[in-house]
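Consider this:
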Amino acid sequence: MAASTSISFLSQNPFLGSSQNVLSVSICPKFVGTVPMQRPPQRQPSFAVEARAKTRREDRLARHSRIRKKVEGTPERPRLCVFRSNKHLYVQVIDDTKMHTLAAVSTMQKLVSEESDYSSGPTIEVAKRVGEIIAKSCLEKGITKVAFDRGGYPYHGRVEALAEAAREHGLQF
């Protein structure tokens, strides 16, 4: 004959008065696993489709992360990274192994901002000037080959003008 075990928990409940058996569980090895398990009622799935509009910035960041998986700056061939805002244009030459910026030029620097007068943002001529200055500063530091990282921007307009000007002044990519 199998032995059964009983477990009970005593609890002081202010609503019930004195201590009473709140939970009592009996375990009998003879009946283990034979009690059918009750399932909670299933909810019907709601098919509300919400279209989440991606912004242009989110699309650019997704393209940039895809590019960054492939393009990496090394000491022999650092990464030429372009960032374009509405008002300014920024270019950096980065060694990703050391996480070090080797050269940087932007339209906020006096070299660029004093030479050209632009009020509504950098134009293609300003981008060409930035490309020329970054190429000269890289060649001074002994950098001739770079990996071009367009930053998720399409290769046309200011980004293309910057790249072409850097190529014309001695950078290889």
